[in-house]
Amino acid sequence: MHMEMNDKRIDEVLEFIWSEREQGRRSIEALLQIDEIASAGAERDTLNEMQGYGLVTVDGDEVELTARGEELSRFAIRRHRLAERLFSEVLDLEASLIEKTACDFEHSLSPVVTESICTLLGHPPTCPHGHRIPRGDCCEKASKTIEPLVRSLNELNIGEEGRIIFVESKSHARLDKLGSMGIVPGSIIRLHQKSPAYVIEIGETTLALDPDIVKEIHVKKAG
Ligand SMILES: [Zn+2]
Ligand SMILES: [Zn+2]
Q1: What is the mean pLDDT of residues 32-37?
Q2: Calpha distance 156→48 (Å, rounded)
Q3: What architecture does CATH give domain 150-221?
Q4: Do 119 and 143 contact (CB within 8 A), yes or no?
Q5: Calpha distance 103→21 (Å, rounded)
Q6: How many beta carbons lie within 10 A of that of residue 105, not counting itself?
Q7: CATH topology for 1-148?
Q8: Domain map of the chain by residue range?
């Protein structure tokens, strides 16, 4: 059976299934209302076609990804969310434009280009909406072949400023604490001193931070 790998419609459905599953939903009802599919009048056809390709299984009102479907939707979601990051951080596009542009753009991203974008953006864990970006090979290797645009705060030179893009911490308590100090995406942070301890400035405040916390703060160099 021939499968057109660049089929945008199928990619959109795979992304939709993935996003719904993140919310704990598996119903095909919502799926059948996606604009692109509904307007093409091909609701059931698309699902049937995807079943034929071995991408999904449908059981009553529930849809599940097969291993192959899982792999493809993981990659589609990764491209989409990285594209969103790219458009928001690099091009400063306004929110209303990001979604549409990302949707059009993501389909043209090859695996190699996707990895380059991920590296450029400092391997972001989430999209601008806070949804998780599936990890790629580049994230494991933390490839440095491309000069990253977004980097850990500890990689700035003393006196340099950066705009916080994301804070990656496994500890929610720590994230809350940092948030209460104004260390949140969008804030401008300045690296004041590296040793004997890290000292940063944010707004009018000067703070000493642990080295592991400094590494978790990811910034885009300002100015
Ligand atoms: Zn998003
Ligand atoms: Zn990566």
Answers
A1: 65
A2: 52
A3: Roll (2.30)
A4: yes
A5: 19
A6: 15
A7: Arc Repressor Mutant, subunit A (1.10.10)
A8: 1-148, 150-221
103 C-alpha to ligand 2 centroid (Å): 20
Quick one: which of 171, 170, 204, 211 has its CA closest to 187?
204
Q: Does residue 67 carry a pLDDT above 70?
A: yes
Give percent of the chain with pLDDT exceeding 90. Answer: 42
Domain 1-148 and domain 150-221, same fold? Reply is no
For the cut 50, the answer to whether the pLDDT of residue 6 exceeds it is no
Q: What pLDDT, on the 0 to 100 scale, is given for residue 144?
A: 59
Placement of tokens 């916080």 in the chain: 164
| Residue 51 CA to ligand 2 centre (angstroms) | 31
Query: Near ion ligand 1, which residues have CB within 5 Å?
Result: 84, 127, 129, 131
Angle formed at CA 125 by CA 119 and CA 126, multiple of 5 degrees: 115
Residues with CB under 5 A from ligand 2 (ion): 118, 123, 136, 138-139
Q: How many CA atoms lie within 13 A of 152 on its CB side?
A: 13
pTM: 0.70
List the strands of the sheet with 161-167, edge to edge. 150-152, 217-221, 161-167, 188-193, 198-202, 205-209
DSSP secondary structure code for residue 89 in this structure: I
Report pLDDT for 1.
40
| pLDDT tens digit sequence for 117-164 | 998 898 999 998 899 999 998 888 765 566 778 889 999 999 999 999
Q: Which residues of 140-151 are buried (b: 16+ CB within 10 A; e: fewer)?
A: eeebeeeebbbb
